[in-house]
Amino acid sequence: PRQSRKRKSLAIAYEGDGAEPPRAPWEPRDWREQLERIREMRSCRDAPVDEMGVHKCYDSSAPPQVMRYQVLLALMLSSQTKDQVTSAAMLRLRRRGLTVDSVLQMDEHTLGQIIYPVGFWRNKVKYIKQTTAILKQKYGGDIPSTVEELVQLPGVGPKMAHLAMHIAWDSVAGIAVDTHVHRISNRLKWVKKETKYPEETRVALEEWLPRDLWKEINWLLVGFGQQTCLPVNPRCSQCLNQDICPAAKRV
Known about the structure:
The chain is mainly α. Helix content is 50%, strand content 0%.
């Protein structure tokens, strides 16, 4: 006799039978109003990042390949260094003719003298020499055009890679998160739960922040962090978000 096959019963949900509706994606409270107020506070564009940031450090009249290399070098120098110091170091380098070949021909001692006093300048000398050699051998003197390849270069982290994509390639692959963006995102509760590292913050922001804001958010928050939402003693009394910021010190 043939064995009867048991049919699997499928549970079908109909309207009004108690099935849970899909949940709306999470987003922070008041974030749109907070963002508009930050835009207003940044409208003067007079923070150090505006006047001496990486986007101001390269020779805009140079051939595209040279320009992209200069952008990457400025980003490498900028790590844990004030914009004013990075800008001055880049100016000294450019006066020497800043290209892949000129840096390869330069000895480490000379390179160190030129970039001093950027933060961790000794390590950066080694990273710059190593990365420049890789660019010459593997990329024909240009820089990689993907985040995945950029972060493989010595001395290049995720924040630098995303900014390189933004500035050098005019491509938005993700949000560039530095210490300012990391700090402010946590203060405004723009992350579901507190994050400890910038890379965690990047992932958390990308989960909800509309993609058309990814490029702007770094520039906005860095300048805001330099002028108002300082690491120590933030100027809450001068901040337009004082009444809707979870971390504000209300007087």
